[in-house]
Design a protein that fits this description.
By secondary structure, the chain is α/β, with parallel strands linked by helices. It is 28% helix and 22% strand.
Length: 429
């Protein structure tokens, strides 16, 4: 549905970046916000009546594996961006571990073109920090940036040594690129599949200790202090790592972090039944860790919540727990679970919306995530009173691997707009 002009009327606008929380109209022209409040004189456009609904910037997901190219049997860019649009997500950052790996401008361009052709949301690829993600030779970061890579990352693939870690940080900083880190010491992780603790011991599962994350965070914090490079820690799972981050921020180090939404609800206790849908990486931690991560979100130490979306085919989750592939199909539960945090009193509504909009936008240095005059008209319209039960078989994602199947949720997206164009509508406009 294409409209050069559109008005969204009577909605409760929540725009944390601009400090707005009020019932007010929005007027869109040529994909951007033309006016908030009264329509400009002579402006006569089609309208959406958003009475009783929340209107906020389109959501920005800092980590979603879309599988294409290379693993289309799990998911495709078209299927997953459609699922994202249905969940109010208008911008996605995808990791570089595709096949081929995003270590050349050609691969980055291919991915962006496929997303543009699908037309559901904006896709920002991460470039590989090292060639082939092999941890040895630095990638051509300048070329990757020119091809549209918003950040660089090596995912969970380890770098050869701390000197390569330092060199990649310095090289990325030279080109103004943010480095995203999935903090894990591979030797301490030791191919574990669950949190190292009483539950894993009782179930006979190889464990990953807290230190696998905290040692890696400490290592990178030391290198940040040495190089001055901007670093973002992805998908933190431990309270201790969050507190280390808070101290580094207090000391004015240029570091930020996000957390996957499932880490704010699930704990090691949820793996008791060997449900392979709770096999994630990093693993589900303790109740204390979950509460500490919630506190870090509430206090603004962690400024973004992501889906860490990892869709899988059924066979990938059909083996015994340690042999299954880790990950949750999380795009369609990112918003409703974040709203559930509000309902449980863990965070206020404006702050929750901020962790999905201006928080990630500020980390990436994007103009999205806010709805001020002239801003891109990426908009999510939510029915806050809609109570529904997640049915995995009805998810739009090609992967239906979720431990939240059957959960009762409140709050559902009615419309998603990308640059003023309606890309998803649950109800007739």
């Amino acid at each position: 549905m294409k409209k050069k002009q559109l008005s969204i009327l009577n909605g409760r606008l929540i725009d944390p970046a601009n400090g707005i929380d009020q019932v007010i109209d929005i007027h869109i022209d040529k994909g951007r916000i033309l006016a908030v409040g009264k329509a400009p004189e002579g402006f006569d456009a089609p309208s959406l009546n958003a009475r009783g609904q929340l209107v906020c910037p389109g959501l920005i997901d800092l980590c979603a594996h879309l599988r294409e190219p290379g693993a289309e049997h799990k998911a495709t860019i078209a299927s997953e961006t459609a699922a994202a649009a249905s969940a109010g997500i208008t911008t996605i950052v995808c990791p570089p571990n595709t096949a081929p790996i995003i270590d050349t401008p050609a691969v980055a361009g291919q991915i962006k073109n496929k997303a543009k052709k699908a037309g559901f949301c904006r896709l920002l690829p991460q470039g590989a920090r090292t060639r082939g993600l092999e941890g040895q030779q630095l990638s051509e970061m300048a070329s990757l940036k020119a091809a549209g890579c918003i950040t660089v990352s090596n995912g969970y693939n380890p770098l050869a040594n701390s000197l390569v870690q330092r060199r990649t940080l310095e090289y990325a900083a030279t080109f103004g690129l943010l480095t995203m880190i999935r903090p894990e010491d591979r030797y301490l992780a030791n191919q574990g599949c669950a949190h190292e603790g009483r539950v894993a011991d009782r179930l006979g599962l190889p464990g990953i200790p807290h230190a696998a994350e905290t040692v890696a965070v400490a290592n990178y914090l030391a290198l940040v202090e040495q190089t001055g490079a901007r670093v973002h820690f992805q998908t933190l799972s431990t309270d201790r790592a969050a507190r280390m981050l808070g101290r580094a921020q207090y000391d004015k180090q240029p570091v930020t972090a996000d957390v996957a939404i499932h880490q704010l609800f699930l704990t090691e206790l949820d793996i008791e039944e060997f449900d392979s849908n709770t096999h994630v990486h990093p693993p589900l931690r303790t109740t204390s860790d979950r509460d500490g991560l919630r506190r870090a979100i509430r206090e603004g130490i962690i400024t973004a919540i992501c889906s860490d979306h990892q869709p899988h085919e059924a066979d990938a989750k059909a083996a015994p727990f340690p042999d299954t592939e880790p990950g949750i199909s999380g795009l369609e539960t990112l918003l409703p679970l974040t709203l559930k945090l509000v309902q449980e009193g863990a965070i206020d509504l404006s702050s929750a919306i901020a962790r999905l909009t201006c928080g990630p936008a500020d980390i990436l240095g994007l103009p999205q995530g806010r709805l001020g005059l002239g801003a891109p008209a990426d908009i999510c319209i939510i029915d806050p009173d809609a109570i529904w039960t997640l049915n995995a078989s009805q998810m739009l994602s090609q992967g239906i691997n979720t431990p939240f199947d059957g959960w009762e949720l409140q709050g559902r997206v009615n419309h998603t707009l990308l640059q003023g164009r309606i890309v998803y509508s649950r109800v007739k406009s």
